[in-house]
Amino acid sequence: MSHHISVTTSILFCSYFLLFISFASSSQNICNEAETYQCEDYQTCCQFADENYGCCPYSYANCCPKTNSCCPSGFACSNNGTSCTRLT
């Protein structure tokens, strides 16, 4: 009986450990080294010309620091920064 309790306890401990690891290792999308600014998982962190951070509403976006904006994945900031152009 003692062996059965030990195995059950070990399995339970491993389950809790794996659950903890899955929460701890989830992508935290932290934007800055001080870890004071964070975006949602579906957003992209962008640092702008004024050195502030913002969250772009697109995953894997291209940041446009000159205009504090961003373009969706597959697009780049235009030279004047007012639009996005498709990458070829």
Search tags:
alpha+beta, 26% helix, 88 residues, 6 strands, disordered N terminus
General form: flat
**Biggest sheet: strands side by side, in what order?**
1-2
Number of domains: 1
User: Span from first to last CA?
Assistant: 67 Å
Helix content: 25-40%
**Structural class label:** alpha+beta
Along the chain, the helix and strand elements come as HEEEEEE
Task: Work out the strand percent.
Answer: 15-25%
How many strand units? 6
Instruction: Specify Rg, calculated over alpha carbons.
Output: 21 Å
- Ranges where pLDDT stays below 50 over 5 or more residues in a row are 2-26
User: How would you characterize the largest beta sheet?
Assistant: 2 strands, antiparallel
Mean pLDDT: 74
Number of helices: 1
Main location: secreted
Family: Belongs to the granulin family.
Subcellular location: Secreted
Signal peptide: 1-26
List the helices and strands and how they pair.
Elements: H1 2-24, E1 44-47, E2 53-56, E3 62-64, E4 69-71, E5 75-77, E6 84-86
Antiparallel strand pairs: 1-2, 3-4, 5-6
Explained architecture:
This protein is an alpha+beta fold and 88 residues long. The protein has one domain. It contains one helix and six strands. Strands 1-2 form a two-stranded antiparallel sheet. The termini are far apart. The N terminus is likely disordered.
In short:
This protein has 88 residues and is α+β, with helices and mostly antiparallel strands. Helix content is 26%, strand content 23%.
